[in-house]
Automatic annotation (TrEMBL):
Pfam family, one: TFIIF_beta
UniProt xrefs under PANTHER family: GENERAL TRANSCRIPTION FACTOR IIF SUBUNIT 2, TRANSCRIPTION INITIATION FACTOR IIF, BETA SUBUNIT
Underlying gene: LOC111309841
A GO cellular-component term linked to this record: transcription factor TFIIF complex
Descriptive protein name: General transcription factor IIF subunit 2-like
InterPro entries per the UniProt record, alphabetical: TFIIF_beta (IPR003196), TFIIF_beta_HTH (IPR040450), TFIIF_interaction (IPR011039), WH-like_DNA-bd_sf (IPR036388), WH_DNA-bd_sf (IPR036390)
Organism, as annotated: Durio zibethinus (Durian)
Keywords for this protein: DNA-binding, Nucleus, Transcription, Transcription regulation
Domain TFIIF beta subunit HTH, chain residue ranges per copy: 181-244
GO biological process: transcription initiation at RNA polymerase II promoter
Major localization listed first in the record, in broad terms: nucleus
Highest taxon of the lineage: Eukaryota
């Protein structure tokens, strides 16, 4: 709301008002115009019940609202009103078509509506019908004027892109299970010859040189070599000292 004049009418600011939370079916029923509608026509009435024996106890007071319209259909007509006084203070404002703002009053009591005990069964039936109606979606058949299907065909560029993506796929690498393991003694001789060629090898280099399964090479390296965790040769293997001496003596 935007007050163009900057003036707020507060003559009714202290008027007591009720705030009522009602089900959607009741709200729609109250908004439905009656056949003989007039500005003063009542749409509902509130029935206040007080026990004379405990009239001083406010909790004994019971409120009930009854719809007086005859065009309510299957909507239950009687509702219990549970009163709540513990709520944030609120006021009611109104705005005219000319943009004039007014305070209509302040909320004294807040009510939550629920179907009266005598209407519980009918209200439950109404809720079930509403749920079933929302779940049953109506299907529609639409006739397409352009029946040649051109708008559903893939564009030429889309086909080329799909073919290009298939060609772009990298070839699958050969798994270790397809590599044939050599004899352990033969493989150790090959390893000694490789370390004669150069003193340090990485695991990847040895797999490429020997074409052997990775785990098989790791088992051999664990027995014959040391792994360098630091230094200039970090990440590579070299022969253990005792095997280095053996290869040196063999070369002599």
């Amino acid at each position: 709301m935007e007050n163009k004049d900057g003036f707020l009418e507060t003559s009714k600011a202290e008027r007591s008002m009720w705030l009522m939370k009602c089900p959607g079916v009741v709200s729609r029923s109250l908004k439905t115009p009656q056949l003989s509608s007039s500005s003063s026509q009542a749409v509902a009435k509130v029935i206040l019940s007080i026990d004379p024996l405990v009239s001083n106890d406010s909790s004994s007071t019971q409120f009930m609202m009854e719809l007086v319209g005859t065009e309510t259909g299957d909507v239950p007509k009687r509702y219990s009103m549970d009163m709540t006084k513990d709520f944030v203070p609120m006021s009611v404002f109104s705005e005219t078509s000319q943009g004039k703002l007014s305070v209509e009053g302040k909320i004294k009591n807040k009510f939550d509506m629920r179907p009266h005990d005598e209407n519980i069964e009918n209200y439950g039936k109404l809720c079930r019908e509403r749920t079933n109606k929302s779940m049953n979606k109506s299907r529609q058949i639409q006739v397409i004027d352009n029946d040649n299907g051109t708008h559903m065909r893939p564009m030429p560029g889309m086909i080329i892109a799909a073919v290009f993506n298939e060609k772009k796929k990298a070839p699958t690498k050969t798994s270790d299970t397809k590599r044939t393991r050599r004899d352990r003694g033969e493989m150790e001789d090959i390893m000694f010859k490789l370390f004669e060629r150069q003193p340090n090898w990485t695991l990847r280099q040895l797999i490429q040189e020997t074409d052997q399964p990775e785990q098989f090479l790791k088992d051999i390296l664990k027995d014959l070599c040391m792994y360098n965790n630091k230094g200039a040769n970090q990440g590579s293997y070299e022969l253990k000292p005792e095997y280095k001496k053996a290869t040196d003596n063999t070369n002599i």
